[in-house]
Amino acid sequence: MKTEAIEKSPDNLRFKKVIIYAVLVALVFISAIFVVFQVFEYRQDYRQLNAFMRERDDLNAEWGRLLIEQQTFGATAQIGTRAVTQLRMYSPPVAQTVVISLPQTSEEKK
Q1: Number of domains present in the structure of the chain
Q2: Residue 1: what pLDDT?
């Protein structure tokens, strides 16, 4: 009886080791798959972040151009108002307007 228990014990122990190694190998493989998936997901998110940052930069540049345009239009009205009020400038009436024509040169006739 003791010999049978001793003989079965190494086989049983070997079987348990094989099962434990198989489980550990499976866990390492599953872990590797998750690492690959996380790296893939990280790269996609990083590309998307770069796209959003480029779009943000483009929108900031457009916003700056619009602010300059708005200031330009505002300045035009201020210049006209100041010219009339401070410098007493005005558009002359048609009766006071004289049109001067310059003589054409031979190059302009062609």
Answers
A1: 1
A2: 46
Q: Are the CB atoms for 28 and 35 separated by under 8 Å?
A: no
Domain range spanning residue 31? 2-90
Distance CA 105, CA 101 (A): 12
38 domain-assigned:
yes
- 70 is a domain residue: yes
Q: What's the whole-model pTM score? A: 0.51
- What is the greatest pairwise CA distance in the chain? 136
Residues listed for the chain: 110
Give, in order, the Cα–Cα distances in Å from 30 to each of 10, 38, 39, 46, 92: 30, 12, 14, 24, 88
Looking at the chain, list the stretches that DSSP marks H as alpha helix, in order from N- to C-terminal side: 2-85, 106-109
